[in-house]
Each structure stands twice: as C-alpha cells, then as structure tokens.
Amino acid sequence: MKLFKDDGKDIIDGDSPIEFSLEQALEEIDIHPTWKICEGNFIGFVNDRDETIQFQRHQENEWTIDVPIIEAGKYTHSLQVEDLSTESVKQIVRRFFQEGDWESLVNFKRNSNGGLEEIKDAPEQNQKHTEISKQAKKGLFSPWCPECQKYKGKQAECPHCGNVED
Fold it and tell me: Biggest alpha carbon distance in the chain?
C-alpha cells in the first residue's frame, strides 16, 4: 500500500505516494491532525489494485472519506461519506490494504461498470452523495484535476497542466 498526506508538517504528493505498511498507516491515522490544527488536512492510500481512498479529519473522532471515481481513465467525480469514527477509518484502511470488501463499510457497492455507487436502500444518504458528487464534478471537493487527472491537492490551479477551476 502507498500513502500520501498533508498533515501541516509533511506533504507527500498524491502523484508520488510512498510505500507504507498497514501498521504504519494505522499509526499515521492515530496521529493525523484535526482541522483545528491543520485546515485542509488529508491522508490517502493507494492499494495494489490502483484504487485510491483518502480521508479528512475534522475532529478527534470525526472523519470524511473521499473516493475519486475514474471512468475510462479520467476523473469524473468523487463520492464522500461524512461522520466516520476513527475506528471506522481504521477498519476501512485494513480492508483496503488487504484488498477486501472495504466499500461495504461506507455504504457503497461495486456497480456493473466497476465503479462505486450508493446502496439503493438509503435514499437520504443517496441524495446527499448525489449532491456532493455534483459539487465534486465542479472541483469543489476533489484534489484531483479534472483536466489532466493528476493530483493537485488544495490548490485551485493544477501545478501539472495549469488548469484553474471555476
């Protein structure tokens, strides 16, 4: 598994994540700062299947997961789930590392196209995810450039292609 992050001290770019063991990843989750300490913080992982997940820590025990959706080799949008506990984040990362069914822990399931979609029996959550996905398509949430599909972090202007989001 590879790790990328911005914790206010260290920045490991999403285009150049570094190899990490599961134990190291779980330790990083424990010490990752909240928004009060580092606004815009994130920690993300790439597994051997080239799947990417990332998290933002809002409070000590409150996280958001962000899953970029790539279709036909291009970033199209991301799905998010808010209000995850630290233990939930660790469970997701354990399964993600082991290439298990981590999606079921965040009410996602694999659709026929190989992407992620919301479980149909949670209409209020689906509405929230749909709205977040629409906003993510506009680049309001995602650190991935919609033009070149490379990691741009918190910047409005992509350092790779110069695209500036509206």
Answer: 41
Q: What is the β-pairing status of strands 11-12 and 18-19?
A: unpaired
Q: What's the full length of the chain, in residues?
A: 166
In-domain check, residue 57: yes
Does this model's pTM top 0.70? no
For residue 5 the two structure tokens come to 């992050």
Residue with tokens 């036909």, as numbered in its chain: 72
Q: Answer whether residue 135 is part of any domain.
A: no
CA angle 58, 2, 68 (to 5 degrees): 55
Residue numbers of the domain that contains 56: 2-72+81-108
Beta strands, E only, the chain: 2-6, 11-12, 18-19, 42-46, 52-59, 62-71, 74-84, 108-110, 116-118
- Rounded to whole angstroms, the Cα distance separating 131 from 136 reads 9
Give the DSSP H or E segment for 92. helix 86-97
Tens digit of each residue's pLDDT (9 = 90 or more) over 118-132: 433 333 433 444 443
